């Protein structure tokens, strides 16, 4: 049951009647009785909420930053016209609009209400509940009730780095050569035989085939294919830190007027995890086009997600779907567990791309001691997102405070350089780039490895 | 690129079918009847308790109708049993009328326990009434009621011996007295002395016996049964066939026309209109307070900027003025960046680094050496200067 402003207005008019009535006490009672009677009549004549039938239709998937529409179909099987208000409740970060609808469904008919969702963070957004308030003919009181109409919209990572994909693909084609290469070198494998044309390197003539075909035949080569790439996403505490500026504002931003030394008014960007996902998607897109098999694993203290054996066409779709609900956990990542999970899953040699942070403390405790087990069997590439805020602090000069900030930032960078050098000595490739550059930098590193035939 | 919206639907829950979640009247009754029963039980126990305990007397001291511990109903009963007519009055006019009425029937005793509600003129009329007076305690206008008796120092009330020849006191024996001591007027008898001053005075004034006691507790229901309290009380108050007992009225404003309050001028309809306005407010609250559906909560990810650890270290440097650590961090960063440009190995000695920089930039070797490997700056101006000099060196190395 619910009352409207009209009930209060009627009571207010009743005040006038009480003021001028000869027997005011009686008038108060009379007004109350009258109001109660009107409310009872309205309640009795309002359409029932319970018999309403509601269905949903619409989008199930949306990329972060885009807008999805979800329809709610309200069917009124009852004998009375359902007039009133309807609220389709979604979690705040789903960005539902409008928040409430004016409902008017004649008996036996149905109406379609469209909610647009503009989510402000990744993950699954579940519809909470639909609440309907139907008013009686007088509009004084109404019935109210809720329906559970389950629906879920999965918000996918935006994959903003896909703008880099054409450039990297053309680099790949260059490398691959639409024209098969004549040069046999590292990182190439036998492609096909074709007839000799003038200008071909005589060293590439396949004499055995020439003998069979009564024609001079040369071998052609192409970059190696069908290598394996395993992308490992660290979802531990270090990936929760926010860096850069968010291209799409995420839910849960801090107010902008924070008094932070050297960074006053800087809004927190995206978590490292989201930048890493972006880079992982670009790498996966590139590697699958290059003919390599891409597997994916998310790990902190346990395996959070595992994608293996996805075909070339549905690899990206599977990946974004898998990544969507992953959030950084506020626990220390278990590197030994990660290494053993990789070793048990990847039987053949592959390129293991670990997306984590170059945090000296956690790397020295966690990854470095167990790294030899991994790098002895696989090629390891460690990609980390650096913090542009630290770079900005490094440049601070002029006042003592800014110089102290710069010194702290320098010290942080020196530690990163030291750990990077240690990793490189162990034969690990390291990519350390700013948030906006991490995806292309990782793609470049992959292409360089491929060109060098180290996969 | 395949568009994510063109994908096959993932295995997410939700079929899109609706299910009412609001409670029905039946489920509300089933869920709430236990609580309702408990509430009803509490109300019943409370009402029963109040009804069984009966009305509690607020307790007016020295009131012949009060059954509280400080009241004096016991004494009034005792007097009536002894054949004394006890007349309870609440105004001077009644008291004087009662006293005059009893004049022909052997006279009366006027018991005055509280004169704080009387004015001077009323006290004079009281003093002029044809009756013996029994004044309790140090009352206002004591000089009018008992001329010649002056209050002395206050003493503790306790059981005391009569210590005098007053028959009423001698017969009663020890009694619970004290309170105020008095000076004995000429011809009077002082009894129950405390520290040498009597707390009970009896003397004759214009043919009437005036008795003043320092404290009335010996007449209360609580003390009446102790010592000779009951005897003393009946001896003092029951000396005449009639006892006129003056107590303060329930509502003191009794004399004259009470001043009219502002509220009396407002017509009664306004009061009821205010009640009606209260109803309006309640309805408004019900209208605005009814939420359309539940409050939706959400578990949000943590928001922590990655640079906070670096900022924290910077604050520590600032707080401790750690110039040595700051300058060493700046120097390390400078050397790490400059060494590859100079074509030196990472293991280059300080002399080799300084030499190479001097060669490239033409800066004095002493300056470069002290900026790179010298003492930590003595003050913050020195720190700023070293930072600026390193910047300049780095720019020159890069541009040369």
From TrEMBL, chain A:
Annotated DUF58 domain residues: 193-236, 277-416
Pfam families listed in its UniProt record: DUF58 (PF01882)
InterPro entries: DUF58 (IPR002881)
Domain of life: Bacteria
Official protein name in the record: Uncharacterized protein (DUF58 family)
Source organism of the structure: Streptosporangium saharense
TrEMBL record, chain B:
Sequence ranges assigned to domain DUF4350 in this UniProt record: 65-236
Chain segments carrying region Disordered: 1-27
Protein name (record): DUF4350 domain-containing protein
């Amino acid at each position: 049951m619910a009352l409207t402003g009209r009930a209060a207005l009627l009571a207010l008019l009743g005040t006038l009647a009480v003021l001028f009535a000869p027997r005011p006490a009686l008038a108060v009672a009379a007004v109350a009785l009258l109001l109660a009677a009107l409310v009872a009549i309205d309640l009795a004549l309002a359409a029932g909420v319970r018999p309403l039938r509601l269905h949903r239709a619409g989008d199930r998937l949306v990329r972060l930053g885009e807008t999805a529409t979800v329809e709610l179909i309200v069917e009124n099987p009852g004998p009375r016209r359902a007039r009133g208000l309807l609220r389709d409740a979604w979690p705040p970060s789903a960005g539902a609009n409008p928040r409430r609808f004016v409902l008017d469904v004649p008996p036996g008919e149905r109406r379609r209400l469209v909610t647009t969702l503009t989510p402000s963070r990744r993950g699954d957004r579940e519809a909470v509940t639909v609440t309907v308030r139907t008013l009686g003919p007088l509009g004084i009181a109404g019935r109210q009730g809720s329906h559970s109409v389950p629906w879920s919209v999965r918000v996918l990572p935006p994959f903003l780095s896909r703008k880099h994909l054409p450039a990297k693909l053309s680099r790949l084609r260059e490398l691959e050569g639409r024209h098969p290469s004549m040069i046999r070198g590292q990182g190439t494998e036998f492609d096909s035989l074709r007839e000799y044309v003038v200008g071909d390197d005589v060293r590439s003539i396949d004499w055995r085939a020439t003998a069979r075909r009564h024609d001079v035949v040369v071998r052609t080569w192409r970059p190696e294919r069908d290598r394996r790439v395993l992308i490992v996403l660290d979802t531990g505490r270090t990936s929760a830190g926010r860096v850069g500026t968010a291209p799409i504002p995420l839910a849960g931003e801090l107010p902008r007027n924070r008094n932070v030394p050297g960074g006053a008014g800087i809004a927190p960007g995206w978590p490292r995890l989201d930048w890493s996902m972006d880079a992982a998607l670009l790498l996966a897109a590139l590697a699958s086009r290059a003919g390599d098999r891409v597997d994916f694993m998310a790990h902190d203290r346990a395996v959070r997600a595992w994608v293996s054996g996805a075909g070339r066409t549905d690899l990206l779709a599977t990946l974004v779907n898998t990544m969507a609900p992953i959030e950084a956990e506020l626990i220390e990542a278990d590197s030994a567990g990660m290494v053993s999970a990789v070793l048990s899953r990847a039987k053949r040699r592959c390129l293991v791309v670990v997306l984590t942070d170059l945090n000296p403390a956690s790397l020295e405790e966690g990854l470095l001691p167990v790294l030899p087990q991994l790098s002895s069997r696989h090629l390891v590439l460690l990609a980390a997102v650096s913090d542009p805020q630290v770079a900005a602090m490094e440049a601070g000069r002029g006042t003592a405070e800014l110089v102290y900030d710069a010194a702290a930032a320098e010290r942080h960078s020196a530690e990163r350089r030291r750990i990077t050098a240690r990793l490189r000595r162990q034969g690990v490739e390291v990519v350390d780039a700013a948030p906006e550059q991490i995806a292309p930098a990782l793609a470049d590193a992959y292409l360089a490895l491929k060109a060098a035939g180290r996969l | 690129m395949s568009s994510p919206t063109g994908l096959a639907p993932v295995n997410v829950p939700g079929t899109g079918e609706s299910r009412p979640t609001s409670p029905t009247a039946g489920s509300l009754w089933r869920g709430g009847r236990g609580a309702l029963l408990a509430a009803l039980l509490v109300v019943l126990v409370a009402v029963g308790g109040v009804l069984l305990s009966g009305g509690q007397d607020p307790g007016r001291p020295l009131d012949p109708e009060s059954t509280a511990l400080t009241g004096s109903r016991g004494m009034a009963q005792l007097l009536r049993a002894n054949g004394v007519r006890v007349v309870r009055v609440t105004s001077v006019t009644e008291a004087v009328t009662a006293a005059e009425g009893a004049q022909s029937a052997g006279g009366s005793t006027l018991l005055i326990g509280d004169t704080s509600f009387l004015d001077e003129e009323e006290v004079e009329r009281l003093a002029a009434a044809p009756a013996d007076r029994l004044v309790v305690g140090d009352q206002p206008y004591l000089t009018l009621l008992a001329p010649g008796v002056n209050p002395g120092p206050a003493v503790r009330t306790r059981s005391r011996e009569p210590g005098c020849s007053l028959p009423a006191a001698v017969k009663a024996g020890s009694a619970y007295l004290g309170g105020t001591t008095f000076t004995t007027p000429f011809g009077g008898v002082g009894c129950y002395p405390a520290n040498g001053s009597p707390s009970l005075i009896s003397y004759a004034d214009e043919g009437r016996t005036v008795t003043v006691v320092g404290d009335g507790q010996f007449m209360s229901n609580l003390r009446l049964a102790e010592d000779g309290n009951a005897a003393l009380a009946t001896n003092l108050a029951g000396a005449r066939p009639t006892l006129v007992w003056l107590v303060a009225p329930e509502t003191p404003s009794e004399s004259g026309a009470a001043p009219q309050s502002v509220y009396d001028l407002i017509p009664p309809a306004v009061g009821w209109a205010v009640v009606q306005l209260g109803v309006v407010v309640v309805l408004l609250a019900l209208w605005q307070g009814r939420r359309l559906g539940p409050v939706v909560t959400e578990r949000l990810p943590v928001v922590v900027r990655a640079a906070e650890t670096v900022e924290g270290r910077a604050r520590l440097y600032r707080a401790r003025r750690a110039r040595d650590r700051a300058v060493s961090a700046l120097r390390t960063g400078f050397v790490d960046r400059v060494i590859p440009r100079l074509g030196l190995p990472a293991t280059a000695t300080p002399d080799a680094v300084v030499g190479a920089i001097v060669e490239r930039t033409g800066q004095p070797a002493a300056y470069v050496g002290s900026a790179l490997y010298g003492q930590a700056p003595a003050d913050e101006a020195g720190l700023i200067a070293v930072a600026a000099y390193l910047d300049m060196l780095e720019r020159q190395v890069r541009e040369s």
